[in-house]
Amino acid sequence: MDILNNLVTEANSILWGYILIGVLLILGLYFTIGSKFVQIRHIGEMLRLLGDKDVVEAEGEKQISSLQAFFIGAGTRIGTGNLAGVAIALAIGGPGAVFWMWLVAILGGASAFVESTLAQIYKEKDKVGFKGGPGYYMKKQLGKPWMSSIFAVTIILSFGTTFNAVQSNTIATAFNNSFGINTFVIGIVLAGLTALIIFGGVKRIANFSSFIVPIMAGFYIVLALFVVITNITEMPGVIAMIFKSAFGFEQVVGGGIGAAIMNGVKRGLFSNEAGMGSAPNAAATASVSHPVKQGFIQALGVFFDTILVCSATAFIILTSDAYGSGLTGIELSQAAMSEHFNSWAGIFLAIAIFTFAFSSIIGSYYYGEANLPFINKSKTGLLIYRFIALGMVIFGSVASLDIVWSLADFSMALMALTNLAAIGVLAPIAFKALDNYMTQRRQGLDPVFYADDIPGLKNVECWPKRQSDMPKKAVNE
Asked: Which residues contact 379 (CB under 8 A, 6 or more apart)?
């Protein structure tokens, strides 16, 4: 296991130290400028769409709404990365890591918009609604099925397996700290609960995530606001420390500027998933009248995850004496919460991390299942995948923190690079879709998308052409 950990750590130092950070920032700037700062200019429209009731009926069954798709995405975004990941970034990279998380979120909003809009354009119908994601736009528009297969392998390795090990590791550690429960027992219980839901399908995933995520996230943010308010005199100093540390002007705890950048970007990407290629799988399941609606919703999800939830964790830790104690991961977050709210807060955080991380396990599993057909379409292949996913939940509960996070970082880098290569080429399509949407909004319309609104689209299955150009039989259908 030590040999594996050393190999993966060395690979991560190359991928994250020299390649992925540059690609993320450069493409994030490109998407931001190309979309005319979509993630900032249209926040009001994003918030308005959360209440969008446009849900299409298919075969007598209600489809997944825009809001439900948002919560599937939030279910995977809000989890270990927000609580344990932020703590790790602070412990290793210092307060400056928070600044780089914020930067990744701001640029990542545009990346999330592009990939999720593309996922909507190239989605397909399945037995219970819609499915789609990077594998679909790679195959349909780029005409590169081999690229879809590579992406499928990387997302299964990351979300379907190693990310779930990270989530179960954090849950097991938190419950062991708070209640003294054996980590293996926790792993078995988690695997059993996961099995109950993943055999129920995507709609059960949507229902679970849309119920539990907003309740726990809302309560956690309220606690964080209480910490900020009761420590308001310290906040200017905390903010100043974050900015000074981000550029190496002040060293407090953690590494120098390189460590701040690397850990801030890594943990920020793990948390908000912008550009990684995961959230588009959730975005594609939504039934909306225009692809840009889901692009907006998922861009908002990045801000919700990082600017709100990750910042909440950072402020809780940086205003406590637990910071600098040598603790890391969920143990540091629990210690900081207990300092602010007494011992009951550590117990609350264990329960919160269970709901956050468990919803992440469910959503992550679905991302892997949605891409499995690019590798194997048999029922046997699906069954094998399900058992491997459940096995990784158990493995994560007993494995060391270092190995599960290293494996997650490695698989995340491979997946993100594959997706970024695709959306870097296809981004102009998302920009044109945005122009089409905003033109209709300026006319006072609820935007509706047609496949021939953007010239050159290939293999678009779920969006009709304008009726004037359609055969009579297709119009009647």
From this structure: none
Is it the case that residue 10 has pLDDT exceeding 90? no
pLDDT at 47 over 50: yes
Contact 309, 101 (CB under 8 A): no
**Considering the chain, what percentage of its residues have pLDDT values greater than 70?**
86
Residue with tokens 């298919």: 58
* pTM of the complete model: 0.82
User: For residue 402, which amino acid is it?
Assistant: D
pLDDT the model gives residue 476: 39
CA angle 42, 43, 48 (to 5 degrees): 100
Instruction: For CA atoms 216, 269, 118, 459, give the dihedral sign.
Output: negative
Chain centroid, CA 159 distance in Å: 10
What is the rounded distance in angstroms from the CA atom of residue 421 to the CA atom of residue 20? 11
3-state DSSP of the chain: CHHHHHHHHHHHHHHHHHHHHHHHHHHHHHHHHHCCCHHHHCHHHHHHHCCCCCCCEECCEECECHHHHHHHHHHHHCCHHHHHHHHHHHHHHCCHHHHHHHHHHHHHHHHHHHHHHHHHHCCEECCCCEECCHHHHHHHCCCCHHHHHHHHHHHHHHHHHHHHHHHHHHHHHHHHHHHCCCHHHHHHHHHHHHHHHHCCCHHHHHHHHHHHHHHHHHHHHHHHHHHHHHCHHHHHHHHHHHHHHHCCCCCCCCCCHHHHHHHHHHHHHHHHCCCCCCHHHHHCCECCCCHHHHHHHHHHHHHHHHHHHHHHHHHHHHCCCCCCCCCCHHHHHHHHHHHHHCHHHHHHHHHHHHHHHHHHHHHHHHHHHHHHHHCCCCHHHHHHHHHHHHHHHHHHHHCCHHHHHHHHHHHHHHHHHHHHHHHHHHHHHHHHHHHHHHHHHHCCCCCCCCHHHCCCCCCCCCCCCCHHHCCHHHHHC
58 DSSP β-pair partners:
61
Rounded distance, CA 217 to CA 26, Å?
Answer: 31
Confidence of residue 208 (pLDDT cuts 50, 70, 90): low
Asked if residue 286 lies in contact with residue 54, where contact means CB atoms within 8 angstroms, the answer is no
